[in-house]
Design a protein that fits this description.
By secondary structure, the chain is an alpha/beta fold. It is built from 13 helices and 9 strands. The protein is elongated.
Length: about 300
């Protein structure tokens, strides 16, 4: 019986050695195992895994961009490494994936709520610059990025539907996020509609404290005395007290927003509306953007 076991073991070792020596005929395989600096008898047990690594390494060597990736895990290669004399394998990001990871690091500084991807991915380089009517706003935002200091006012940006107000501010916020600031955009009509959802308090506390906040499309919400007095007012008061830059986009002028905020199911309350407007005026510079509807 022992002779039979020895014979089987010998056959297995022979087969492994033949498979390993065959693999060594591949120059890339040979180069990879040489860098490992482990003896051949040890490496023979890992021939199939080393061959897999060789194929993935070849794919990476000939790849022109991450969209062409042929490996099992896009943007990663399954490669060997030696840890205290033991052979291990790990998925390592390729040069394209590394670049992508670095370029997207700023996104950890962003918390947007109910905002579509096209807005979240906004960039200064892609903003629409053909219409001269947009220049004043664009220049204001670029100057804000370059010269921001704690306590500077944000922007109340109002204008026609679809002219790119939110995109411009989002592009600005993305630049600020790359500088290490925490930013958030909330689509205000949907945000206040979720006032009694389980995670609302968490989101409210988060946006209250970020370095830069955009309250998007204010004036389009279904106004209630509660969302005016218990959500918007304390939010603005906190940000004003802590000198946190706050931005607004709206289809309404500030005077029109005042009228909107005065009316609720409980009747007209111009005093409380006036308090909100006073806070907005202290927090922001008022600019108008009348331009081409980019959504058509």
């Amino acid at each position: 019986m022992q002779r039979l076991m020895d014979s089987i073991e010998g056959s297995n070792v022979k087969a492994l050695k033949e498979e390993y020596n065959k693999a060594l005929k591949d120059e890339v395989f040979k180069k990879i195992v040489k860098k490992l600096k482990l003896n051949d008898e040890y490496l023979m047990d890992y021939t199939s895994l080393l061959e897999e690594s060789t194929e993935e390494f070849k794919h990476c060597s000939n790849c022109k961009n991450i969209m062409e990736c042929k490996n099992k895990m896009e943007g990663f290669a399954y490669l060997p490494k030696v840890v205290e004399g033991v052979l291990e394998f790990e998925y390592k990001p390729c040069r394209y994936k590394k670049k992508l990871l670095v370029s997207n690091q700023y996104k950890k500084n962003i918390k947007n709520i109910e905002v579509p991807p096209v807005i979240s991915e906004a960039s200064i380089s892609n903003i629409y610059k053909t219409d001269k009517k947009r220049y004043e706003v664009i220049n204001w935002l670029l100057d804000f990025i370059d010269n921001y200091q704690k306590g500077d006012k944000g922007l109340y940006l109002h204008g026609n539907f679809g002219c790119g107000k939110t995109y411009l501010v989002s592009a600005t916020f993305n630049e600020l996020a790359k500088m290490g600031y925490k930013t958030s955009i909330v689509f205000y009509p949907e945000f206040v509609r979720q006032a009694f959802y389980e995670d609302f308090k968490y989101n409210f506390d988060l946006i209250k404290k970020v370095d830069f906040l955009l309250i998007d499309d204010i004036g389009a919400e279904n106004l209630t005395a509660y969302n005016r007095d218990e959500i918007l007012c304390p939010l603005l008061q906190y940000r004003m007290d802590n000198q946190l830059a706050t931005f607004f986009t709206s289809n309404l002028t500030i005077d029109e927003l005042r009228s909107h905020l005065a009316f609720s199911k409980k009747g007209v309350d111009e005093v409380k509306a006036g308090r909100i407007i006073s806070r907005i005026e202290q927090l922001t510079t008022d600019l108008e953007l009348i331009s081409k509807n980019l959504r058509k």
